[in-house]
Amino acid sequence: MVRKICEVCSTNESNYKCPTCLLPFCSVACSRAHKQTLCEPAHPHENSGPKESVVEEDEDEDRVILSENVLRSIGSNEDIKRLVSQKRFRDALLRVDGAHDRRKALELLMTDPEFVVLADLLLEQINFSDP
């Protein structure tokens, strides 16, 4: 698996992506530095017009941009924090993020009952309802 380097500091391995332009970055400090720039959406059509539940032929067809409030809510959930503090969960999430076929990697991970619990907690935090 190829690891990406932070495109802000060009020093550390990136573990995150800008939700707007998908630029890889490694830390809160690099995220804040990047937010000072005017980045362009990675897929300009995503931010134009109302959001529909259309399946696109794209590797990120299920991408959802979460608000700062929702991200804070996820970050403050004790059950989620407990699960993602485990190295095996962090490693598994990094494998999914770095996989060529993310959907397949996630489906494989969903065979782990404990990961299903984490997924359910995350979906609950973002108020996801199956259409």
Quote the average pLDDT.
Answer: 78
How many domains make up the coordinates?
2
Biggest sheet character: 2 strands, antiparallel
End-to-end distance: 34 Å
Report the helical percentage.
40-55%
Q: Number of helix segments?
A: 6
Determine the structural class based on helices, strands and strand pairing: mainly alpha
- The succession of helices and strands, N to C, reads EEHHHHHH
- The fraction of residues assigned to DSSP E strands is under 5%
Overall shape: it is globular
Radius of gyration: 16 Å
Uncertain runs: 45-60
Strand order of the largest sheet: 1-2
GO biological process, one term: maturation of LSU-rRNA from tricistronic rRNA transcript (SSU-rRNA, 5.8S rRNA, LSU-rRNA)
Region (Disordered): 40-61
Protein name: HIT-type domain-containing protein
Pfam family, one: zf-HIT
Question: Would you mind describing this structure in some detail?
Answer:
The chain is mainly alpha-helical. It has two domains: 1-42, no CATH class; 68-126, no CATH class. 44% of the residues lie in helices and 3% in strands. The protein contains six helices and two strands, in the order ββαααααα. It has helices at 28-35, 68-76, 78-84, 87-98, 102-109, 113-125, and strands spanning 16-17, 24-25. It has a two-stranded antiparallel ribbon. A hairpin with a 6-residue loop joins β1 (16-17) and β2 (24-25). α4 (87-98) packs antiparallel against α5. The N and C termini lie far apart (34 Å).
